[in-house]
Structures are given as structure tokens and as C-alpha cells.
Amino acid sequence: MKELPNTSFDYYTLPNKISCGILGIWPIDEGSSTFSKIFTYCRVIVAITALNSVFVPEIMAIAVNWGDIQILTGIGCVLTSVGQVLYKIIYLVARREKAHELYNEIRSLWDATDDPNEKKSYQQIAYWARTVTITFYACVLCNVIFFTTSAIIDYLCNDNRHLPFDQRYSNITVRYGTDISASPKFEIAFFCQLLACIVGISAITGVDCTFMTIILHVAGQFKLIKTWINKIGNEINRESVHLDKFEMDLFKCIRHHQRIIHVVDDINNLLTPILFMQLLTSGIEICLSGYAMLDNGAAVIDIMKFTTHFISMAVELLLWCWPGEILVHESEEIGQVIYFNIPWYNLPPIYRRHLCFVIVRAQQYCSITALTFKVLSIHTLTSVSTHCFNFEN
Q1: pLDDT at residue 292 greater than cutoff 90
Q2: 3-state secondary structure 163-176
Q3: C-alpha–C-alpha distance, residues 256 and 249, integer Å
Q4: Which residues 6+ apart lie within 8 Å of 371 measured at CB?
């Protein structure tokens, strides 16, 4: 693979492209061959099938072990996670045209300026997105490794056979319709569930981190507007700018600001159903894993498993709330930067009115919402966590 320059859009989105490419949900190039498109759709079908190979048996396991709260909490954690991923993949496949349009718009925004110094204003935040994507993938992968290793250790030390993401001592015969506790059926089921888990972590990382990256890239464009505004203010203070150039630069900022606002609206249009489902099920998931962690009758190995799962799910929720907080902060600062960094009081009235309109619009900050009633921010994260802990107490 050709090495990408660290100033290109593809460099910063490469981890997202790899994760989503495994699932076949990364936007297809218009010039791709028919074979490539068919192969992409086949990957989507394989991913959905692999996840259903875990999702359907887990539902059957809940039906069989309905009266055992210890088993239900363990199964419920896995079932909720797999259900989240399935919903996100199917939803994005159904709205793939809208997702592709948004991706192309974000890609074009990367070339909003040719000045290397101005590009640094959003390259830094793009680097954060890339780093967090890689770190989160490693975190979720460690979670899968820990679940798998604990199942192997339990079999070697206690001669107790159970699949990586199944609760110990739960009935695995009924959910698969046959007795898989004997070799080689158990090894085949073990390997198949492990492959499904690999697909699952690619889906979790691919979908969640890609939208985190999109939100951060949009927030970076607000930083670019602030860079332009500071540059205009410095030129005015040095009296090295003519009104014609000032008007051109000002209108460039206004047009770009309006464009970013429309992009945020497109993101909300695409993401609000996913975000609503994410916030709803994350609370359930945290409650289930928290209960399993505090269960005095659980084995030490199970407590450690659910602790790692709890941490991973909390980090996943943070992946949505943290970029939303940055987006709100960066969009709000546009008005402050104009007011304090541009000597608007020395400008003709017509330009003062233009600046006033931008300040007023910036006070209505841009945000990502879950069905228009819950703004994604750090406050949302603490609110969900507080409700979960109050429920457990």
C-alpha cells in the first residue's frame, strides 16, 4: 500500500476505512468495478450473518434462563452490544446514499484552504480522531481477548466448557438446538463465535469512530473559520488591508460558516436515530454490567470480564459525547472571536451589520442531538451515568 502523506484526508481516516471496509459499509468509489461493488455487498451480508450467529442464540439463551438473574445479566450485556451493532449496520445500509453524500462533503471540506498554516487548525483535531480510533480499537480488541482467554482458562483449570461470550454454567444446548459441549462441535462453535466477535469489534470501531471522526472534522472547520477571523483582525490592526479584500475575506468566512451549519444539519438528519438508540441501550448496558460486577455470587473471572466490558461501554459512550462537546464549544467561540479580535467599531456600518449577524447566529451553537431533545455533550455522559448508578443503588 502506498504510504499516505500526513497532510491528506485519507491519512487521518485510514483506520476508519479499514474497520468499515471489513464490513463493506465504507463508501464505494464511483469508478469502482462491478466486481468490487458485488464483493462489498457480500461483505455486508457476511457481517450481518456473523453477528446474527451470536444475536439469535443469545435471545434463545435468555428465554431458557429467564429465571436466573446472574446468567441474564451476563447474556444481556452481550446481547445489547450485538443488537446495537446490527441496528447501526442495517440502518447505514438502508441510508447509504445519504451517508455517502455526507462523506463526500466532509472530504471536500478538507480542501477548504491551501495554506499549510491554516490547515494546521484542523489537522490537529483530525489527528486526535485518528489516535482515538486506534486506541479504542485496541481497547475493544483487548476486551475480546480477555473474554476468550477466560473461557480457555476456565476449561483448562475447571474442565468447564463455555463459549467466550456466554455466561458460565448457562445452558448452551438449547440455544444452538444441539449438544455442542462435545468435540468437535464445541471447538467449531467457539471458533465461529470468535470470528463473529472480530466482526463485531470492527463494526463497533468502524461505525462509532467514523462518526466521531466526522464530528471532529466539522469542529475543525470552525477552528479554521476562527483562524481566518484572527487573520482578518490582524490585517485590520496593521492597516494593511483594503476594504475590497476585507469584504472578500469576510464573505468567505460567512459562506463557510453557513456551509458548516448545513453539514451539521445533515449529520443530525443521519445520526439522530442511531444516537437515540445508543443512549437508550447504553444505559441498559451499563446497568447490566454494573449489576454483574457487584454480584457477590459471581466468580472472580466473571467479575473481571464484566469490569472490562463496563469500561469499554463507558468509553464507547464517551466517543459520542466528547466530540459533541467540542463541536458545541468551537461553534460558540465564533462570535467571541469576532467580537474580541476584529475592531468592528472602526468599520463601515454595512460590515458591522454583517459581523453582528454572524455573532447572533453563532450564539445558536451547532450540536448533535438524539431525536432533537438530547444534545450530545459531557453533561449527557454524566447524566446517563448518574441515572444508571441511581438505578443500581
Answers
A1: no
A2: CCCCCCCCCCHHHH
A3: 11
A4: 272, 273, 275, 276
For residue 268, give the nearest of 207, 328, 215 by alpha carbon: 215
The C-alpha cell at 220 is: 475543525
- Nearest partner of 289 among 307, 302, 314, 277, judged by Cα: 307
List pLDDT tens digits, range 177-206. Answer: 566 667 777 777 777 777 877 888 888 888
Residues 6+ apart with CB under 8 A from 122: 110, 217, 220, 221, 223, 224
Please, what sign has the CA dihedral across residues 387, 388, 391, 393? negative
- Closest listed residue to residue 304, CA positions, set 161, 182, 147, 194: 147
285 closest CA partner among 62, 82, 50, 53: 82
Closest CA to 204 of 138, 108, 109: 138
Whole-model pTM: value is 0.87
CA 361/CA 261 separation, integer angstroms: 10
> How many other C-beta atoms lie within 10 A of the C-beta of residue 198?
14
Q: How far apart are CA 250 and CA 265, in angstroms?
A: 23
* Residue 48: pLDDT over 60: yes
3-state secondary structure of 369: strand
Parse the chain into domains and list their residue ranges. 9-392
* Orientation of helix 300-341 relative to helix 185-237, angle to 10°: 20
**Separation between Cα atoms, residue 271 and residue 281, nearest integer Å:** 15
The Cα–Cα gap between 380 and 174 comes to 40
Model confidence over 241-253: pLDDT tens digits?
677 888 898 999 9
Question: What is the reported pLDDT for 284?
Answer: 80
Q: Which has the closest alpha carbon to 93: 25, 37, 16?
A: 25
